[in-house]
Amino acid sequence: MTSETQRLLGVVVVNYGSSALLAQNLAELSAMLPDAVTVVVDNRTDDAERERVASLAGRHGWLAEYPQSNLGFGTGVNLGAEAAFASGATHLLVLNPDAVIDAAAVQALLARSLESPGALYCPRILRPDGSTWFGGSDLHLADGRLRNPSRRDGSPYEPWLTGACLLVDRELWERVGGFDDDYFLYWEDVDLSHRVLAAGGRLELCDDITAMHDEGGTHEGQPRAGRKSDTYYFYVIRNRLVFAAKHLDDAGFARWSGLARTVAWETLLQGGRQQILQSPGLLMLARRALRDGRRLAGRVRGSR
Question: What is the pLDDT of residues 25-62, one digit of tens each?
């Protein structure tokens, strides 16, 4: 990748207690992209973590943003994107702290965006064992379930791309307004994908370009094997209703709302029945997520 091409690129990573991953993953990538603008947004955890991020940023020449609270993922990316664009970037690579991508893959994504702008570009994302973590996903419009493309059955759907590793040109990003601040975590990438399509943009899953993702590496604490974090369950359950309130007509919103408990239970079952028996508080968490989702959905629809 030439220096001239690198200067077009801004790499934005949102950190939340993951400075060890920044030191391991982002440091290596930024060394391979010395002329790219690298921005770390440190969603606040504590003073010690902030000092570690500041030290890494100084050592590696990263720009850093230091909000005084945890802004969540989407709002954090938006803040980092502003800094990257202010520094001259024309393209944005959004990357999770626990995502690993090499310079050749970044170059390939950027080359495709330069050749054919107006799209979100996402590589196939693998787990460390070589299996596919993300190879595309569908939002089924009838019920709001997220399914693998292999399960298409003729019902209406929209594809969406994960925010774990996305490349986009500035014009498209600013045209759709970046991530929606209302989600905090999860579903913000489903929402962004939907708005890109609605604005006449495209979603491009690049099967021949790969990145790697250690799922859960950025979650607070270390859930037992097979169990997702409480944070995941809460916001995935909540934000399905937020998306419905923002983007569906009355009939569609009523249909998704009527299935909310069923889909919430299915979400909990992603970690297996045993974890629900071992952690009965998950049922209360799901109820809180549904309650919060309905409250936010009511606010959104009331403001339309």
Answer: 999 999 999 999 999 999 999 999 999 999 999 999 99
Q: Would you state the pLDDT for residue 221?
A: 47
Instruction: For the chain, give the secondary structure using H, E and C.
Output: CCHHHHCCEEEEEEECCCHHHHHHHHHHHHHHCCCCEEEEEECCCCHHHHHHHHHHHHHHCCEEECCCCCCCHHHHHHHHHHHHHHCCCCEEEEECCCEECCHHHHHHHHHHHHHCCCEEEEEEEECCCCCEEECCEEEECCCCCEECHHHCCCCCEEEECCCCEEEEEHHHHHHHCCCCCCCCCCCHHHHHHHHHHHCCCEEEEEEEEEEEECCCCCCCCCCCCCCCCHHHHHHHHHHHHHHHHHHCCHHHHHHHHHCHHHHHHHHHHHHCHHHHHHCCHHHHHHHHHHHHHHHHHHHHHHCC
**Which CATH number is 3-213's, of 3.90.550.10, 3.40.390.30, 3.90.1150.10, 3.90.350.10?**
3.90.550.10
- pLDDT given at position 151: 92
Predicted TM-score (pTM) of this structure: 0.94
Q: Where in the chain is the domain with CATH 3.90.550.10?
A: 3-213
CB-CB contact of 205 with 165 (8 Å): no
For residues 18 and 10, give the distance between their C-alpha atoms in angstroms, rounded to a whole number: 20
Residue 148, amino acid: N
State how beta strands 119-126 and 165-169 pair. antiparallel
- Predicted confidence at residue 222, as pLDDT, reads 46
- The count of other CB atoms within 10 Å of the CB of residue 137 is 19
